[in-house]
Amino acid sequence: MYPDAREVMTGMTTMDTLENLGQWSTADAAELYQINAWGAGYFGISDEGHVIVRPDTTDAAEIDLFEVVEGLRKRNLTAPVLIRFSDILAHRLKHMHEAFATAMSENGYKGQYAAVYPIKVNQQRAVVEEVYRYGEPFDFGLECGSKPELLAVMALTTETPDRLIICNGFKDDAYLEAVILSSKLGRRIIPVIENYDELRMILKHAARYDVRPRIGVRIKLSAEGTGRWAKSNGVKAKFGLTASEVLDVFNVLKERGMEDCLQLVHCHPGSQLNDIGCVKEAVGELAYVYAELKQMGAGLQYIDVGGGLGVDYDGSQTNFYSSMNYRLQEYASEVVYRIGSVCDEREIEHPTIISESGRAIAAYQSVLVFNILGRCGLDELGDEVITRQLGEHAPQPIRDLIDAYISVNERRLLECYHDAVQAREQSQLLFRLGYLPLHLRGLADRLFAATCQKVRALASKLDSLPEELLALESILSETYFANFSVFQSLPDSWAIDQLFPIMPIHRLDEAPACKGVLADITCDSDGRIDRFVDLSDVRHTLDLHALRDGEEYYLAAFLVGAYQETLGDLHNLFGDTHVVHIHLHEKGGWWIDEVIRGDTAAEVLEYVQYDVRGLVNRIDRDGEKAVRDGRLTLRESQILLRFYESELAGYTYLEPEVTGAD
Q1: Is the link from the previous residue into 80 a cis peptide, with omega within 30 of 0?
Q2: Alpha carbons 383 and 12: distance in angstroms, whole number
Q3: pLDDT tens across 576-634, in order?
Q4: How far is it, in rounded angstroms, from Cα 454 to Cα 446?
């Protein structure tokens, strides 16, 4: 008989501790998670080891994120929860206004600047209303890209008709009729022509309602984009008119004596532009289009540079696709300088500059907080010497694994690693052929992992790590099960490998002892995150703490305010999470402005056309049948029905265990 695996190894611990790192501090945590790089001043770490939020990027007013989560839990708002910091949104708008004001002052620019928020970035009512309210001092407006979005914007702007509305996207007859009717209501609204046929419909409805419309045109630039959405720009772009088509639009208007109605030129330089060079080329080309049309007699007043202003998700400030090699002030300066220079060269007045930088406005405000349900990793492993050898009848691969484990030293790292890899492969083959007992297969896996740990510990002392040993990080990582759905709350992470900063929100005064990846609670193998931000490269594990019995462990994904909520889907019928709007209190601390409770099971079932009342009736009838057949008592059937109705009204995510219930 082969000895039991538990008799072979003793004194095992979990993973490498950070015993060689000396005294751990919150400054070490800040460096490890690079919070100061990607946080843009909005996030930091307190002396207590908690993530703090600084809505105006100063330490004059701070919000303890862990304290907020605990406060929400006491209000029965359990994780996962999306927390929106409304004051960050206000600061982003103010910051954008100030950046362009500074650029205009430095460059002697005589025009104005106005941002319009594209509501497609985050169409949630509360977000759009807050953007619109906080943008009022700067005369910022809204942008819509579809008829439903326009219908919402028409109603939201009843009290402020003079603030700008830009209408992009493909438009049908009803969309453009709504635009003209909005003009009759006094709205300052500009439909941007994306294809030539839209001009005909605009002119038809303008004549019908006796409106002299404001009209914009989007031009396809020859300058190409960069980053993940590079193909959204250039002559093959989805939207916009060619130069000849723009001239055709102008000539049609001129023939009707309406050239003054052409008031805006627009371009789409791309999304999440990671290279400032693209901005320079696109804006320069658009400025020349503006100048040419203006000199031809068009009534141009606005130049819309579109979106594209990036967000530095990883904090590296490089041209990596999840970063950007410029800052907001440089972006504003380049836009203002290039437009101003072309206008001065052609001796024409400076127009109002419009930008549609929705991602840069909305991303920072939202933080997704979720709890860890458990972890799955290595068996008890460590680096103590095996105290008992297997008998001489043990299979050769097992003996080879033992030898590799015992023999690890600084001079034989690669050799022992290679031996361990080969021996494990041989043991797996023997098991598949039926020649190795299950307990020895388990022992082989434990020996291999223990050998890898010893190799990694010694390799960490080397000046440079051999390329073959880079895989050790993934081999030794653990899986932390996170209470959220990637597909609902972080769809871009799954769909386009977007990187979001993720880190613990507490225990940051403790050195993390584990390296892990995250798996969500959907039954889909893609529901995992194994790519994390790093200043030099993408990391494939995240430094995490060991879990403690009876204590929640919270992580958060940051910079998730743009696109994620609208793009999220109902995979496994996990619905929207709870959403909470947090404000700074003028006397210090924070307060809850609005709570939007997450979807219930009944609500998500109705989304996919289930008759919830009919489901309850079916369970009721089935319970009565079980009572009749003697499988349930009447009381048990009533308990079952109440339980079923209660769960239909409950959160779709996992909730804390209820103890002491009947």
Answers
A1: yes
A2: 7
A3: 999 999 999 877 789 999 999 999 999 999 999 999 999 999 999 999 999 999 999 99
A4: 12
